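Hi support team,

I'm opening this ticket because the web form for multi-chain structure prediction keeps timing out on my end. I have pasted the exact lines I submitted so you can reproduce it. The total is 1039 residues across three entries, so I didn't expect it to be a heavy job. Is there a limit I'm missing, or should I split the entries? Thanks in advance, R.K.
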Amino acid sequence: MSRSRVLAAVVALLTLVGVLAACSSSGGKGSKSGTIHLGATNVLTGSIASVCKPITDGAAAWFRSVNAQGGVKGHKIDYKVLDDAYDPARAAANARKLVGDKATALVGGCGTANEQAAYTISSKSDVTLIGPYADLPDYLTPPTDNYFGLFPTYGDQDAAVVQAGLKRLGAGSVLHIAQNSAGVDKENAAAQAATQRAGGKWLGTDLVDPTTTDYTPLALKVGAKHPDYILISAGDAQAAQIVLALKSQNVSPAKAYLINFASTGALLSTAGSALEGKTVSVTSPKLSGADLRSCLDVIAKYGSKADANVHGVYGCSVAQIVTSALKKVSGSVTSKSLATALESLRNDASAPAFGPVSFSSSDHAGITTGTVYTVQGGKFVAQGTAPYGGQ
Amino acid sequence: MSLLVPAIVSGISVGLLYGLLGFSIVTLYKASATLSFAQPAVGMFTTFLAYYCYSKLSLPAVAAAVLGLVVAAALGVVLYLVAMRPNDQAGTANRSFRTLALYSLLLAIATTWFANGQPFQFPIPTPKGSVSVGGSAIPLLSFVTLAVAVVLCSAILAFFRWTRYGLLFRAVADDREVARLLGIRARRITALVWVAGTVIACIVGLLTVPTAFVSTDTLSNYAIYALAGVFLGGLTAWTGAFVGGLIIGVVSNVALVYVSQEAALGIVFVILLAVLTVRPRGILGDEAVTRV
Amino acid sequence: MLTVPAHTRTYWATALVLAVLAVLWPLLGESDLSLVGVGLGYAVAAVGVDIATGYAGQPNFGQSAFMAIGAYAAAWLENSQGLSLWQASLCAIILCALLATLLGLAAVRLEHLGFGIVTFAFAFVAAAFLQGGALSDITGGPNGTPSPAGSLFGYDVTQPRTLYGVALVVLIVATFLSHNFVRSRAGRAMLTVKGNEKVAAVLGVDATSVKLRAFALSAAFGGAGGVLIAISAGFVTPASFPPAASVTLFGMVALGGVGTITGPILGAMFFWLVPSYAPGLEAKQTVFIAAVFLLVLVVLPSGVFGTVADLVARRRPKLRWARPLGPARGQPARDVRGDDRLARVGERRGRVNVNE
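Hello R.K., no limit was hit. The queue was backed up. Here is the completed structure from your submission:
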């Protein structure tokens, strides 16, 4: 191999990278006039992708169904989803790309750290972030112009389930087992406040790390405190292991488990026996019932089977709300006009899985009620509603 | 203080699993001179394969688990042929790095194609319930793990020490070139070693299924503890992995109960550093130079 | 494969790569600049891994920890202690070097993989402490903390174009320092004796101090890369530099070529950019990257660039930019200018096995 050939090969390789980069930056602007550009940065690969990917898939399915019916006032929706693999640096780059490609809003997405990074970029260009599956209370109190939440904050979720549980089964001591993830300190404070408001006794929080190999030490610590209620803030996988570890050490809450997250069902199929008859949950969106039909049908038609779960329904419901707001926009669709339209929504019923959604100029947290569930016969059974956000 | 004994007992339970995983690493090291970082991922991957025998082939769970072990053996051969055999003159360091890449690859494959909807329930019949010993509950599963560990360790030890084949394995590990010159089919032997290592890792994975289900996350978390246990006990000692694993399990679980996760990991790290600096051969290792 | 000195004189290749990256600076759009800019940050860190792994024979599997520590330290120093961006970043980089020296004092006497294991464990421990409550006043715990930010000559460093320029300069400095370290007398002696302390002692080289310096330099580059990447992301969280990133960084180095400096830069750009720019890979990208990693180790242990440089060196031994410094594969020590003693050592030892 001659020197010049080697040089040529190296230059070619680098030029290829450079050309790819340059081409990608100039391409993608081909927008037909009137197309509404929406985007998202989501965790599409990696270990939490199985939770996160269905969210944007569900939204995409809904937007596809809207386009199939002619779009919003004749305008088609172009929804571009980029993968950030839960890396904040990639999420920031994705946000820059979407903003550069003239996205009106970022819709959906998942993961607190990366969506925070994306918001830092998008808000600088006044591009709205709507409904990521992430805990971002800092952007809601006070409400910022560029953020609309359709995911109740972890603190609100805790407060709702504590209140519902203590109301149903009486006052008692509450112990919190929480995954040590972003926002956990605010969440603890909210859970503690709610416990005290409901007349219960706050026993504190035991944090669990996602790298935990053995939950028995946790079970020992929890058992020593003899709680009436055990509030669990973790995903399906961790929650199931925690519950089983508690059971193996003969530890059980005297009154009930309080589950504050929307379970895909993996929790019940693995730890259902320990939860049977002893669980209260408050979640949004709904976990079952006719209200999920509109989304499940759309996902079946325009999405894939892997998305037909509570997370796909969440994404689809966010898209339903966004569509409803788009329909209300008078004039051209811009970030500002979309935000104004969102703020005009009052008890909007476009997303049956969410229930009524309301925004206002002083309140960008759209979800006001969750559904109360108990575990009976190995299934989540609806028992009415409970409010999010305070009393 | 009332939590101390239960904490130690729980540490022994999990330490057995660290030890078994470490044992698969030691087997590969002693019999093929390769320090394998891949074992946790291999265990996770083969557990998924066993689970698919149950869910896709609709076999009863026990049959699926057994079939899973057979599949694991086959996978061991595949892993050897694909990742280790080509260009196998490249040196011990390179072989070790390959196992690191193998870890990434198996984890990536499982996360991309197997993980959707996890964790999965794989109802291998194991004794449920526990035995109460002085205020702490020892799950019966731990006794099963102990039995498995004892049987496996004795079997492999006996094989290597007292059978002709075992001698061949050790010869290949000691000096590949000389072994070849003596007519030993080193490559065939090494393939068999990989079979053994993979099957042992699969057994570890199956043992974690009752408490941690089938998931891509489980065994990855064991990696650092198993490695620390291996070096603490001695990379060149057959039973070293168990001794080291037990100590690491107890120490980290007690730290978890009384302090925090960071403290547990920090202590494990200090132990590892201390062992490698002060007594690199580990507690039970041979005086001979560790080829690390 | 750990120490492959056959092509240390690759500075012309490095210069070419850096030139291309410089040319891209005015050409790319904002979002591409921010992506490639992060790639440059990883390239700096990868060069750091190469220094320790390829030249000193001490695989640094804990680079993610140093990247994280650099980023968090700079953020804290700037946000809470009121230092300027440059002061904070410099202090953070020095902190990384100091930490590495401390760790190295205990670990550097370990041979190859032992050192690798210790650094690997260090990655996990650091991640736990950065996420946990013990240091949460500084790190923000699982919430993370806002990244360092600031301006250079009036240009806001969080702007992609400015950050790209800064990152490029840092990379140039890093490669310059690396080549200097490798070319220094001690560095070259280190290479030629391939990390064998006894022979090094005979020749009057303090192997331990060289290894420590290499590791400290490696960690410093990691810290610098971490700061750059954090500035781009806007936030530093435990998710920014997980222990798995250490393995990926090693993969970048292995792909490019251990011990080549240029190789790791190319490897870093490839691993980082492929998921974003390769159409159709999408969900399979992690599998693709891991497969490439394994393939390189099996088929091209010297890495892509390393193999290319090897081929060039063999065909044109007189070629200044690729002349082997020490014995090439399977050949007795050649005439190494001015280092007759080392050459004779090589000859007496006979066939030197580069592969170990």
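A quick check on our side: Chain A has twelve helices and twelve strands. Let us know if the file doesn't open in your viewer.
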